[in-house]
Write a structure and sequence with these properties.
By secondary structure, the chain is of the alpha/beta class. It is 38% helix and 16% strand.
Length: 209
């Protein structure tokens, strides 16, 4: 068996929405990935100053969202790890756990790529995987001149995609849910049902700001 090409899509997923699914599908199809792993953050250190819905709820919603797609997987690797969730540690651990040789393509948005110098051991991260950067409406294209000054060699580690451009915000979803508004077209029916049944994102609950 040759090298397996695996996509990895990490995030808080509070909640997982149709934009996340579109990012994973586009990356898989464009790059001919064998599968894509969704990795919900356990303790997202870049969001340590905001409330986040308990990890098990976020994990359950991701499982519901990816259920219809046989080429999507879910890992609780960051939820089970103590301490902050660092992407570079996750990539290394996923590689070490695999019984075959895998090449990892880490999927992120243009906005996150521009913030990469803030990430933990960003220089090590770009040496362990390929980055797949996807646009979001209103986000600026990556400034590789500035990024190279902070992370040498990053230009050779990034694959820029121009689609999909889906304007869906988890913050907006939480706010709509708090007001009792429908989430049609924003999250899957199964995820919307879960949010309602568990009472997530009601005023004063969950990660609503």
């Amino acid at each position: 068996m040759g090298v397996v090409k695996a996509g990895v899509l990490g995030g808080t997923f509070d909640p997982v929405h149709n934009g996340h699914i579109a990012m994973a599908r586009e990356s898989r199809e464009r790059l001919n990935l064998n599968y894509v792993v969704f990795v919900p953050a356990g303790n997202p250190w870049l969001k340590s100053d905001v409330p986040v819905t308990p990890a098990e709820h976020r994990l359950d919603m991701v499982k519901l969202a990816v259920g219809p797609y046989p080429y999507f997987q879910v890992s609780r690797i960051e939820i089970d790890r103590s301490g902050p969730s660092y992407t570079v540690d996750t990539i290394r651990e996923l590689k070490s756990q695999s019984d075959v040789e895998i090449e990892i393509f880490f999927i992120l948005g243009w906005d996150s790529l521009n913030q990469l110098p803030r990430w933990h051991k960003a220089s090590d991260l770009v040496k362990t995987c390929q980055l797949v950067a996807i646009p979001r409406p209103g986000s600026n294209p990556p400034d590789f001149t500035a990024l190279e000054k902070e992370i040498s060699g990053i230009s050779r580690s990034v694959i820029l995609l121009d689609t999909p451009q889906i304007d869906i915000s988890a913050t907006d979803i939480r706010e709509r849910s708090a007001r009792g508004l429908p989430l049609t077209g924003l999250v899957s029916e199964a995820v919307e049902k879960y949010i309602r049944e568990k009472g997530l994102y009601r005023e004063g609950r969950g990660s609503l700001k």
